[in-house]
Design goal:
With about 250 residues, the chain is mainly alpha-helical. The chain has ten helices and no strands.
C-alpha cells in the first residue's frame, strides 16, 4: 500500500509519469535542487559562455528585422499543431510521420509479423522532426525577442547559449525512451503469445480453424506510444513556452 501511495504521489512532467506507469518503474522524487542538477550538466566552458551572455551588451538589430515575421503565438501554435498531427500519423496503424492514410486494401491478406523495429524507427524519426522544427522555432522566437527590448535581446542570447550547452544532454536522455518502449512492446507481445505446450483437448474433436492472433495489445501499445510522444513534445516545447511568456510580459 505504501508503494502504491508513493507511485500515485509522483509528480513532474507527464513524460516521466507515463514512462513510470508503462515500465512499472519505481521512480522516486529527486530532492536535489534544479540549480545543482544544471551545475552537473554544464562544463566550465558552458559556464563562461552563459556568464558572457548575461553580462555582454545585446547585439544591435537591423530595422528590417524589427518588422519581420508573423505573430509569435500564431507561429508557435502552427508548429505545435503540425507536430501533433505528425505524431498521430506516426502512431496510426499504417501511418508514417507526416504522411496520409494509405489506400484501402481490396483483398484480404494475412497479418504481417509484428516487429518493434518499424515502430522504433517511427519514434526516432519523430524525435528528429521535433528537434529540428522546435530548434528552428526557437531561433525565430529569439529574433523576435531581440527586436523588442535590450533585456529581451539579452534573454535571446542566453537562450541560444542554453540550447547549445544542454542540447547534447537532452538528446542523450530522450534517446533512451525508444528503448524503454521496446521493453513494454516485448512484454505485451509475450503476454499475448499462446502457450507452446498446450495439448489438444481431444483427438476425436475436429480441429478448429486457426484464428488470427488478437492485435488489441498492439493497438493499445500504439496509443501508449502516441501518449509518450505527445508528452515528449510538451517537454521539448518548454523553452518555447518560456520565450512566449517573456514576450507576453512586454
Amino acid at each position: 500500500m505504501a508503494h502504491a501511495q508513493q507511485r500515485r504521489a509522483l509528480s513532474g512532467p507527464a513524460l516521466i509519469r507515463i514512462l513510470a506507469r508503462l515500465t512499472d518503474a519505481d521512480v522516486s522524487e529527486s530532492g536535489q535542487p534544479l540549480s545543482d542538477k544544471l551545475s552537473q550538466w554544464l562544463s566550465w566552458t558552458d559556464a563562461i559562455t552563459l556568464s558572457t551572455a548575461l553580462s555582454a551588451s545585446p547585439p544591435a538589430i537591423a530595422p528590417s528585422v524589427r518588422s519581420a515575421g508573423m505573430d509569435a503565438e500564431t507561429m508557435c501554435s502552427r508548429v505545435r499543431t503540425a507536430l501533433a498531427k505528425s505524431i498521430a500519423a506516426a502512431c496510426a496503424l499504417d501511418g508514417r510521420p507526416g504522411g496520409g492514410a494509405r489506400a484501402p486494401i481490396q483483398t484480404a491478406a494475412p497479418a504481417a509479423p509484428v516487429d518493434y523495429a518499424d515502430l522504433r524507427q517511427r519514434y526516432v524519426l519523430m524525435q528528429q522532426t521535433m528537434e529540428m522544427d522546435i530548434g528552428d522555432l526557437r531561433g525565430r522566437l529569439r529574433r523576435v525577442l531581440a527586436a523588442k527590448t535590450p533585456d529581451l535581446a539579452r534573454l535571446a542570447v542566453l537562450d541560444a547559449s542554453m540550447e547549445q550547452a544542454l542540447g547534447g544532454r537532452e538528446r542523450t536522455l530522450l534517446s533512451a525512451v525508444p528503448t524503454l518502449l521496446g521493453q513494454v512492446f516485448e512484454r505485451l507481445r509475450a503476454a499475448e503469445q499462446p502457450p507452446a505446450d498446450t495439448p489438444p483437448e481431444s483427438t476425436a474433436q475436429p480441429v478448429p480453424a486457426i484464428q488470427p492472433p488478437s492485435r488489441a495489445w498492439l493497438h493499445a501499445f500504439r496509443k501508449d506510444m502516441q501518449s509518450v510522444l505527445l508528452a515528449e513534445l510538451d517537454v521539448r516545447f518548454q523553452p518555447v513556452e518560456g520565450l512566449l511568456a517573456a514576450l507576453r510580459t512586454r
